[in-house]
Specification:
Blueprint: H1 2-24, E1 32-33, E2 39-40, H2 54-61, E3 69-71, E4 74-78, E5 86-94, H3 98-111, E6 116-118, E7 125-129, E8 132-137, E9 140-148, H4 156-167
Antiparallel strand pairs: 1-2, 3-4, 4-5, 5-9, 6-7, 7-8, 8-9
Length: about 170
C-alpha cells in the first residue's frame, strides 16, 4: 500500500508540473512585443538576415530581390534583374567595447584624409566613409554597403533609411 501511495503522489506531481509547463508556454507567438505592441525580432548576430525583410529592402531598392544570402555575421541582398543589379551587404561586429572600436575606426578613417560624414538619428552613432555606412547600436557595429550596375547603386539616403529600419528593431 505504501508503494502505491508514493507512486500516485509522484505521478500527480509530474502531471501537475506538466500542466503548469503547458499553460506557461505560449506556442502561438514568436518574438516579444514592446509596450506599443510592436513585435521585436529575435536577433542573432551570427545571422543578421532577419533584421531586414525582403519587403523592406525591395521598397527602398524599388526592385525585386533574391532571398537574402547569409554568411557568418553578414547578409547579402541582391536584385533579381542582372541588368539593373544592386546589392546591399549588411555585416556586423559584435565586440566587448564597441564604442571604443567604433570611435577608433572613425578616427582612423579621418586620418586617411578621405571624408567621413557623420549621420544623425541612426543608432547611437553613425558615419559614412567612402560608400559604407557604419552604425553603432548597443554592443554591435553594423556596416551597410551597396554596389551595383552604373546608375543602380543605392544613395546615401537609401542606405541610411535601411540602416535606421534595421537598428531600430533592436
Amino acid at each position: 500500500m505504501k508503494r502505491t501511495g508514493i507512486l500516485w503522489f509522484g505521478l500527480s506531481v509530474i502531471a501537475t508540473l506538466a500542466l503548469l509547463v503547458a499553460l506557461g508556454c505560449d506556442t502561438g507567438r514568436s518574438g516579444s512585443a514592446d509596450k506599443t505592441g510592436e513585435k521585436k525580432i529575435v536577433f542573432d548576430p551570427k545571422n543578421p538576415c532577419n533584421i531586414l525583410t525582403k519587403d523592406e529592402v525591395e521598397a527602398v531598392i524599388k526592385q525585386k530581390v533574391k532571398d537574402p544570402s547569409p554568411q557568418e555575421y553578414a547578409c547579402t541582398f541582391e536584385t533579381i534583374d542582372a541588368k539593373k543589379f544592386t546589392s546591399l551587404i549588411l555585416s556586423l561586429d559584435s565586440v566587448n567595447d564597441p564604442e571604443f572600436l567604433f570611435n577608433g575606426m572613425r578616427d582612423r578613417f579621418k586620418e586617411s584624409g578621405r571624408p567621413v560624414k557623420q549621420v544623425a538619428g541612426v543608432g547611437e552613432g553613425a558615419f559614412f566613409y567612402e560608400k559604407a555606412l557604419h552604425v553603432l547600436k548597443k554592443r554591435y557595429i553594423f556596416h551597410f554597403q551597396s554596389s551595383g550596375s552604373e546608375g543602380y547603386e543605392l544613395t546615401e539616403e537609401a542606405i541610411t533609411n535601411l540602416a535606421r529600419t534595421a537598428v531600430d528593431k533592436l
